[in-house]
Structure formats: structure tokens, C-alpha cells
Amino acid sequence: MNTFLDHQNWRYATKKFDASKKISTEDLNTLKEAIRLSSSSYGLQLYKVIVVDNPELRAQLQPAAWGQSQITEASHLFVFANQTVVGNEDIEGYLKNAEQTRNLPEGAMNAYGDFMKGGILTMPEEVKKVWTAKQTYLALGNLLNAAAELKIDTTPMEGFDPAQFNAILGLDKLNLNAAVIAAVGYRHDEDKTQHYAKVRKSTEDLFITL
User: How far apart are CA 204 and CA 194, in angstroms?
Assistant: First the structure.
């Protein structure tokens, strides 16, 4: 645990990446697996994660992210896109996957499925969109933590225009919406913010024990 906390103190929201350094395939796969294993409500994972490596495509995205240099200088850009439509097929797909993964007979999880459908399918559509967007942040947290363990730098970002990202990446056609993004790579030696002391609330100010 001390090592984990050391890595959390090491990480920061990188302002300038070294564009000459790329994440290895092995480390990239580790980051993807960390995201895949992330917690999510009911285990449904109602989102997609688009890994943007193509420099031309990232150049198109940069103006839609207030021109921030991390978009193009980082090794990769992760776009967490929540589903804007959630239906019966999403739940049925999860149940089938769960039964196969756990070697259960077909229909063994029908009761749990009915429970999920009762809580999810009755939500107003706008509430569903907010809910699925929140799920992407759980996956983002796993990415940030896994990257820190590998000494890979990250910048989680909400400073972008989702509608423009959706249009450029074709997400609208897939019933997806860019909820949050993260630039991932290696800090540049010239990034002065890496030397700043981490500013956080004290334990006494942050926690309330009842």
C-alpha cells in the first residue's frame, strides 16, 4: 500500500507531454485490461473506450478541446463514451455473458435480470444518460491508477466539446457520447508542474466519521 500511495503522490495532471515517447504495446494492453476490469453498476459497462492513436485524427480533435497540447503530444488519447440508449438487449447480453462465464445453465440469472430491468428500463431517458456518463468515471479512475503504477503520465480532461468530439469520431451514429477523456503518455522535462507540491485537503478537512 505504501508503494501505491507513493505512486499516487508521483502522478499529477500532466500539462506537457514528450511527443517522442510512446507507450509500449505491453503497457497499453495493461491499461486496457485495467479499464476492462473496472467496477460498474450491475457490471453492465454501458460505455465504450476509444483509444485514439492516429495523429491526424487527434489534430482534428484538438480545436474541440480548447487547443490543449496534451491532445496531440501525448502517446495516446482515451475517450470514454457513454451509451445514450440503454435497452433490454444490454441486460440480456450481460446475462448471457455472465451465465457462460460462470458455467451456469441458461436462465439461471433471470431473476437478477428482472431486478435490473425493473430499475434501469423504467428510468427517464435523460436520467439514463447521466447515469451511464457517471459510469465512465469509474473506468477513468482505474486508468489513472494503473498508469501511475506503471509510471505512465495521465491528464484527465473535461475541457472539450462533446458534440464536436462525437461528430469527429462518429459517436452519434453509435449512440455514444464522449463523457470524459484522458491523455496518456510521458511527461516532458520542460513541464514545470511536475515539480509542484501536490495540493489536497487535509485528512481532517476531507473526512467525516460518524
Answer: 26
Distance CA 86, CA 46 (A): 8
Amino acid at the residue 158: E
Q: What number of other Cβ atoms are within 10 A of residue 205's Cβ?
A: 8
Give pLDDT tens digits for 18-76: 999 999 999 999 999 999 999 999 999 999 999 999 999 999 999 999 999 999 999 99
Tell me the HSE value of 184 on the side-chain side, using a 13 A CA sphere.
Answer: 27
Among candidates 72, 64, 82, 67, which has minimal Cα distance to 168?
64
Axis crossing angle, helix 110-120 with helix 88-101, rounded to the nearest 10:
150
CA atoms of 161 and 179, how far apart (whole Å): 10
How far apart are the C-alpha atoms of 14 and 16, rounded to whole Å? 6
Question: Do the Cβ atoms of 182 and 157 come closer than 8 Å?
Answer: yes
Instruction: Please give the distance of CA 187 from its chain centroid, rounded to a whole number.
Output: 20
Rounded to 5°, the CA angle 41-130-121 comes to 60
- Asked if 145 contacts 34 with a C-beta cutoff of 8 angstroms, the reply is yes
**To 5 degrees, how large is the angle CA 9–CA 14–CA 16?**
145
Say if pTM beats, i.e. exceeds, 0.90: yes
Amino acid at 167: A
Alpha carbon distances (Å) from 52 to 12, 75, 149: 21, 9, 22
